[in-house]
Amino acid sequence: MKLYEFQGKALFREAGIPVPKGTVCTAGDTGGLFAPSVVKAQVLSGGRGKAGAVQIVETRDEASRAAEAILSMTLRDEPVRAVLVEEKAKILKEYYLAVTFDGEAGTPLFIASASGGMDIESVADQTPERILKVPVDALWGPTDYKIRAMCDFLGYGDRREFASLVRALWRLFREKDAVLVEINPLVATESGLVALDSKIEIDSDAEGRQKALFDRFRDEQARITGRRDEGGQDTITYVPLDGDVGLISDGAGTGMLSLDLIRDFGGSAADFCEMGGLTSPEVMYSAMDQVFTKAPGIKSLLVVLIGGFNRMDEMAEGIVRYLEEHPTSVPLVVRLCGTMEEEGKTIMRRAGLAVYDDLRTAVSDAVRFAKGA
Amino acid sequence: MAILVNRETRVLVQGITGKSGLLQTKSLVDFGTTVVGGVTPGKGGTESAGVPVFNSVAEAVEAVAPNAAISFVPPLFARDAAMEAMESGIKLLVLTMEGIPKHDVLDVLAYAKGRGIRVLGPGTAGIISPGKCKLGAHPSRMFIEGHVGVVSKSGALSYEVGKTLTDAGIGQSTVVALGGGPIWGMTHRDAVELFNDDPETEIIVLLGEIGGSTEIAAAEYIADHVRKPVVSLIVGRSAPEGKSLGHAGAIIRGNKGTADSKTAALREAGAHIASSPAEIVQLVRKLR
Lengths: 373, 288
Description:
The structure holds 2 protein chains of 2 kinds. Helices cover 36% and strands 25% of the residues of chain A. By secondary structure, chain A is an alpha+beta fold. Chain A is elongated. Chain A has helices at residues 5-15, 60-71, 120-126, 144-154, 159-175, 211-225, 252-264, 281-294, 312-325, 341-350, 359-370; strands spanning 22-26, 37-41, 54-57, 74-75, 78-79, 82-86, 93-102, 107-113, 131-135, 178-189, 192-195, 199-202, 237-240, 245-249, 271-274, 300-307, 332-338. Chain B folds into 2 domains: 11-120, NAD(P)-binding Rossmann-like Domain (Rossmann fold); 138-287, Rossmann fold. Chain B contains 9 helices and 14 strands. The chains are: A alpha+beta, B alpha/beta.
């Protein structure tokens, strides 16, 4: 779950990381506006600065106008429904500091840069030498010598202050099950380091043990957006594409392979729809439903199943039930093999549905049917 | 020989009495894997799929001496189970579950590091050394014993390629699925290193996909150390930019993690590039 800036800053405050004083205003509640201040759109995507959704104001009137303007914006398809109004900070220097994980190395990772305030991905692309990546042991955390290395790399003068901030960041990262805690910019002021922005994402896999945290932030987000996100139970990945061969697979790897083969055979896929490797008849049913509902114009449907954990009898059951309830004239090509294959084939046969064994033949037929041949 | 698992592998199933654990244990036993015991706290003294159940890994170690563990323990308890197995001296862990909290996975990997413990997964379909041992969900009849070592992130793609090789009469030494991420214990490079050192493996098949860079790390290792023929298939070459395709890492951002950049690195390292499972068969036949 991604947090709004003001939610992340509440966590910073609780963790002892300094943030500017501020208040949240919505269209219906602008009583907290003050000036001089910075008025910042609260959205989950980035790129606010360039869109004019962060404004510095000197008077209360300006603040009202800025808030009104920002609250009428839509940034990357996300309507702005709240602004954070904060005291201006006197910035001496801007840094970037974050903690996340490197999945391929299997370790937590601190990232520090003296080029704060900028888009860190473009800094990484253009001037990688300006970024320091420090992997840390999950069980040891950031040891003193690694904190010193970061502090020296940034060139910040007060090592003790920096160390206590890094440790607070680490505790927050661990205790709240965060997958990303980013401060950009972290600024040096006359009174020390202040987090001017926050970007926090909490691991949705940890919801079972972070119930209170999830409830708190979901309630807040619901008050702002007017709708409560109950978290995703759906394991289906659906990506719309622009072709006419519908595609469903029970694995990302075979899904991508099928996508490539469809193109090799001269066809083009209408979607990428992957159910995950441990699924159920209900998920199979729902995948069919998504493909037919989101792309009603498909000319054929290719279902690529190869069961390990997945049971082919359950997959066949989902397909047959869907087609009984939603008869279609769209040609269906089902490749089904693996765990409980015989049972699955029997269910399909009884319903009068053909089953393929070879993937190439299946893809080639699906493409041919889409072309009306 | 094969890699990671063979005839000497004595398997402990953690979470053996759950729905998934029970079904998969039956499949392992049917295959012929030496499953010496299972663990479910509170169910010690019973049997599950004909296998003795213990209350703790320590009890199981004492009684039946397992040397590998496969876990079907629910995500929120997976870390504790993994720690228990590692502290009891088990050196190979297969974590099948998806949805284990990220910090728990990081803890397990941190503990395993430097102690000679290998962790496969999480979210992995596991591993099969045909004719010897299966420690995962691979559909048994898609695999036959032989000399081609296969490593893949995706479980389904490893079955697909195994099936295609088997249908063509080409056997496999070991087939490894690494899992769909976003955090990995073993990576492509680790598996390639093991295959390179395995006398039974004559050809290595590396299956990769768009996103991330584990195939690139493997390519560097291949260039420096591997003298066995390597055949590689990278899937997702027709994927649109900026759209995440199922696996956490499977997304193209700019020119990074593209199928082209990976095939170029692998080709440069001396690997033979296939564009489909059928082409893998052709290349393997030529290289044998």
